[in-house]
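PROTOCOL LOG
Step 1. Enter all chains and additional molecules of the complex.
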Amino acid sequence: MGYSFLNDYSEGCVPEILDILGRTNHAQEVGYGEDALCVEAAGLIRGETGCLKADVHFVSGATQANKIIISSALRPFEAVVAANTGHIAVHEAGAIEATGHKVCTVPTADGKLIPELVDQVVKTHIDEHMVKPRMVYISNTTEVGTVYVKKELTVLKEYCGANNLYLFVDGARLAQALTSKANDIAMKEFAAIPDVFYIGGTKNGALLGEAIVINNENIKNDFRFNLKQNGALLAKGRILGAQFIGLFTDNIFYRNGAHANSMAMKLADGIEEAGFGFMAEPESNQIFPILPNRVIESLLKDYRFYRWADNGDGSSSIRLVTSWATKEDKVDRFIADLKSANRCA
Amino acid sequence: MGYSFLNDYSEGCVPEILDILGRTNHAQEVGYGEDALCVEAAGLIRGETGCLKADVHFVSGATQANKIIISSALRPFEAVVAANTGHIAVHEAGAIEATGHKVCTVPTADGKLIPELVDQVVKTHIDEHMVKPRMVYISNTTEVGTVYVKKELTVLKEYCGANNLYLFVDGARLAQALTSKANDIAMKEFAAIPDVFYIGGTKNGALLGEAIVINNENIKNDFRFNLKQNGALLAKGRILGAQFIGLFTDNIFYRNGAHANSMAMKLADGIEEAGFGFMAEPESNQIFPILPNRVIESLLKDYRFYRWADNGDGSSSIRLVTSWATKEDKVDRFIADLKSANRCA
Amino acid sequence: MGYSFLNDYSEGCVPEILDILGRTNHAQEVGYGEDALCVEAAGLIRGETGCLKADVHFVSGATQANKIIISSALRPFEAVVAANTGHIAVHEAGAIEATGHKVCTVPTADGKLIPELVDQVVKTHIDEHMVKPRMVYISNTTEVGTVYVKKELTVLKEYCGANNLYLFVDGARLAQALTSKANDIAMKEFAAIPDVFYIGGTKNGALLGEAIVINNENIKNDFRFNLKQNGALLAKGRILGAQFIGLFTDNIFYRNGAHANSMAMKLADGIEEAGFGFMAEPESNQIFPILPNRVIESLLKDYRFYRWADNGDGSSSIRLVTSWATKEDKVDRFIADLKSANRCA
Amino acid sequence: MGYSFLNDYSEGCVPEILDILGRTNHAQEVGYGEDALCVEAAGLIRGETGCLKADVHFVSGATQANKIIISSALRPFEAVVAANTGHIAVHEAGAIEATGHKVCTVPTADGKLIPELVDQVVKTHIDEHMVKPRMVYISNTTEVGTVYVKKELTVLKEYCGANNLYLFVDGARLAQALTSKANDIAMKEFAAIPDVFYIGGTKNGALLGEAIVINNENIKNDFRFNLKQNGALLAKGRILGAQFIGLFTDNIFYRNGAHANSMAMKLADGIEEAGFGFMAEPESNQIFPILPNRVIESLLKDYRFYRWADNGDGSSSIRLVTSWATKEDKVDRFIADLKSANRCA
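Step 2. Run joint prediction.
Step 3. Record the structure below.
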């Protein structure tokens, strides 16, 4: 099988995390996330984010985080607003609806929500015959690899505040967002904005794990009951703590994100140099070049990646994803092979 | 803090599992449980259980397994029958009800369901004004440490077959059951009986993970959709595969169970020798001695364990749990300290 | 088919309600319970109950009322406590669990909850591994025909207040309770006690309908969204308003309840006179005499009623239910037939 | 308040229904829809639809019908496909999602689904990371007043059959569809097509009630459990039976639909004559004329109707709804007032 640009979770984890697991393996710890490793990791995250009063909880994956956060915060008839590309709207097998809540979607060009788009939903949901929008869900980076800048986040938060909406940021790829060339906001500035967000481990060099950070007091209350009811309290919660101690020591979290982005930018530059464009502006570790189908066929012999959309004109958009583990020589080789395939095709 | 007999998930994992994680860390694998490690682990489990046609899925924890299995198999108005001590009835924060299903409970003396007890529920649920019992849930070992013998399992399965009920076995401590002195059934014989069961990793030396084994064709269908919707498909499913490759290599699964049981039996023998009885017959790695409260107070200075029930006569039942990691010298020391506390008290 | 003592909803409705439906039939009204009839009915109910600040909503049936009230008031992991005989625990096909909530039951001798019984649940639900009791559900009259006296209600409310529990009274047979010989509380005194309750129409001479009265501000909020989401907002809500205008004009509500009770007492007196006892003290329109099976067989030729429980000694408890529509001559005839059957049997 | 063209449920019911309620009021009937009136009504419906083997159930309203049918038929991860104007997608306060199911919507010009539109959803839902489309929901008449012709229904059913999708028709306004000038299909031909549909009573001259007709054996099974669990089994189910005996005697069902349509066509003709167009082709009892805002303001002094959409050019679309009870002189007067307002404006 060819080298994989399928996603950013193809490899295991940074060696530091395995070290921590090994080093702490024999210590007796209490269960369910109240162990010394989770306590330490939560402290590191409070320090790093500046959210000193936040509640921090660890769960094993992003769908679980989304499902629990949304269903904890909303009453039965309340709904969450998302971009039509939003992970919760498309790729979670109806996990949010399974908790009883509607996801109201709006079409976006670039995967980002802006107040005007959310307002279309708010303005048309006017009485008890319709659901009541109560939360806005955004992903940073978005599902199409774009990144929110500071101003976009602050105006959205302002809008939410004025309209009784929680702002929830899915940060499965927050490291990639904060280390993107398009980014203009520091972690601490970012972290102060949402009512609740999470910091992705799985897609940034951990074996598993997302760290939920809750700023809003309403959402904090009894949150562990929701974790338990959703099967998210791991008996050996210590392994989730270990992941985030690893990531937030020696800036590995940011270094991983930066490496993933830099590999993607190198790919993007090469692709552009070869004369091709993109479905969306390359800003982070997911890029969407548009290539002739014959070039794609040729590349698929040696590489793995998703075809995203057939453009119907002999070309398709593909998705290339890089990660903390992507090897630079593979990137170089991909560019060379692309150019060669283009010449032959 | 004292040495912990609180549970069987206080330590990390057997070193073999860390070795596998390290050895396979850099290989690129596909996501969501379709990687080479999960494939290998599923093969090992099919071989070990003799369930060659079974579907095998890996999830991170027991509440998650229970919730997904039950809600996948039942229609909205169907219910599951459990002992009133059953984990799903007591200790999952309403996880089953959160999927819309009632848990019908019956009181038991020893944590075990027998046809007569289930039949009380079946006989009194007669029309559409009541839920429709459709599944029987048992745990082996039970929540009070008892073990089902072969005959008990076969008559229960027969009853289920005759009454259109699925039989589901929660095997969070299946290793401890199959290596108990009270056990009289081999893995392959056991595994052929239930419609669906799972093999516990978390409480038997893995970092996390339960392996769901589905024999019944009705339950197999589209099961991965349920996993995804419940947030149970880990992006790096490989780490779950690694746990079970570890456990099912060199019989570690059984050796861990046997060690846990033997440490518990040693504790039980010492306690009995010291003149004390038990709330339930000690058969596996959870035992429930009845001790004078003053002895308990004294032991709590150096050991950690749960007080289970105050008997109101100056004595209480406590729960002592041993595991794959329990150290024999700590057990010896506990017995000695108990005898000494008893003399002084 | 014989004369029916099966239940209190065998006949249609008091003629006054049909009159109102006829009289108002051609008026144009707005939909979904905001019509003039519902407004008038709500006003009558606020006046009659003295709950001048209460929100009043009308739904079509009791299961619907229970389901909506409970799921509106509770967060996902919160539970409701009920007697094991409670309608929500037994006879609603899992309607409460279908909204995600556990019903914690306690055994009772007489169908009534007292603080000590509720406290058993509260005391054993101590952390996030278990559901969190947050509401107490009682029925007045109970499912076995007994009636709460004032002191029982006030101590229960006090307990609830002290333990952060809502008190919810299912008043499907509230008229029968308030007109029972065992009752010692007036409607206004009663109505001030619960956080939320409903006044049954269906089982007291209306075609359909229960009137929900919400005293607690927390439960009032956005309640109509819950009604809609549960399919309980009738387009022609006017027909529900009509029922309660009918019942709360000229004291029909109380007269119906009193008639049902008096017919039941007449039955009970005759049965006692014939030498038979009861499973529960006859206090309202549901009574449970214990009769020889041969007498029962004989009576079933001319009457319809439920066998409640076979006592295994040649006798069974049966349930006889009277209503606003029960005819006195049928009651007299039943007693005579019973005596005659007893002589022959 | 002005004369209402707000909806088709402003008045009570046809007098024949009140007659039946009066005539049968004192008969003792069994509860929960198994009474003689429901049996008779179900027989009338089987005869009228030609669905001799269908199961027929009565519920009180359309949201309840939609919710129960969809949640009965689907497994947790399965989804229903609807037009973005579909009642279940917009106007049921998330009732479908509250049962755990996603509604996948597609934009339509005229409120109708065609195979090509459904296929967009089917083709993009390809694995277990997404919900699995399993049912197609259409309304006839649609929410914008349009009507499906025979060919449209048969090709949609063919598509559904080929793609393992149930076809479900919301017939809240089925009478209006089958008596529309645009209709080309008879009741019996129509009724043979869907897997399940319902016949609306509430919006066609009944006090309440929708009659669910189930053709597909898979959906029939244990349906009454779903009714009970959703609070839809009325104790006095007889009142639902009475509605449909009334409607299906002497063709009242069709006469009501035809009257509503003819009043709407008269309105449409007058509006067209006055020089105005429509947002959608007037085909049934809901029409959407586009009028100058000043004309609308003037009409709102004497009539009630909804503004549907502001066109931003000084004109708006409004919705006018007629019914079985609409008076022809009010229609004439409306046209006259419209013309007059237009001259003055």
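Step 4. Note key features.
The mean pLDDT of chain C is 97.
The two ends of chain C are 22 Å apart (CA to CA).
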